[in-house]
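ok so i was messing around last nite and threw this chain in just to see what happens. nothing serious, just curious
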Amino acid sequence: MSLLAVCSTRIDWSATGAWFSGFATLAGVIVAWYAMSTWREQIRLQDRYQKADILLRCFILCIRAGSDWQWDCGVGENRATTGESEKARIWRNALMDYRLAWELAHSLFVGDQCNRLTAHPEKLQSEIIDAGHHLSDPPTGTSLFFKQLEKLMAVGVSEIIARRDAK
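result:
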């Protein structure tokens, strides 16, 4: 009798097949769980990036519209603080869009830190209005106006990007 015949008669192939089948099922469940976890994390990060990108776009548009509105009011003694212009309406709409994007992206910002952020809608609005007060003192005020808006843009954009990339 050959060695192959002796070995094959002593192995219970039905029990071995059931063991391999159970092991394969367990391995499949582990792989599926890992794939589902990775997929869920990818969806969460994609949502986070999408909300941050919309917020960033609205932030930039709001600063641009605020700058245009302030500039439209005039410089120096020509500065008009009353009256509703087209630029003021555009800025008000941009600010409303930004507030909506801020509310939709609330998961990016947590805790008491929100109100101190430059990117916070209330702070952004007051910073743009404060920057406009420099325009009543040309020519140095004009450069201060643009420097303040440039700083506002840099700080706000970095805040939004930092929270977008945070885990």
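not much to say yet. Residues 13-73 form the longest helix (61 residues).
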